[in-house]
Design a protein that fits this description.
The protein is mainly beta. Helices cover 0% and strands 52% of the residues. Strands 2, 4, 5, 6, 9, 10 and 11 form a seven-stranded mixed beta sheet that branches. Strands 1-3-8-7 form a four-stranded antiparallel beta sheet, with no helix packed on it.
């Protein structure tokens, strides 16, 4: 059974850090295009970061230099290290997996991140 389960969300103050994890089952994260998205209340879901099968990483301009995406093939997990958090980062964060860039086959249920000023 394919499943993505996010964890690591929480509440922090501006400038703080959080590390999100996404545990995958039923497939190998190293064989899929993996991504993080987020959705704030009242806003559309937006892309945050991706890691390709090749290992190439990309980031939205709003998080570049502050967030780092990585994967652990041994643990079959995707992570998102978030530093220098800002109130604008407050959202529910989702991981997603697809066989090609931008086309997702699987989504997690999300984990909430709240950044207070």
């Amino acid at each position: 059974q394919v499943q993505l389960v996010e964890s690591g969300g929480g509440s922090v103050q501006t400038g703080g850090s959080l590390r999100l994890s996404c545990a995958a089952s039923g497939f190998r994260v190293s064989n899929y295009f993996m991504a993080w998205h987020r959705q704030a209340v009242g806003k559309q879901r937006e892309w945050v970061s991706s890691i390709y099968i090749s290992g190439f990483r990309s980031y939205a301009d709003s998080v570049k230099g502050r967030f780092t995406v990585s994967r652990d093939s041994a643990k079959n997990t995707l992570t998102l290290q978030m530093n220098s958090l800002e109130p604008g980062d407050t959202a529910r964060y989702y991981c997603a997996a697809g066989l090609s860039s931008g086309e997702y086959n699987y989504w997690g249920q999300g984990t909430q991140v709240t950044v207070s000023s």
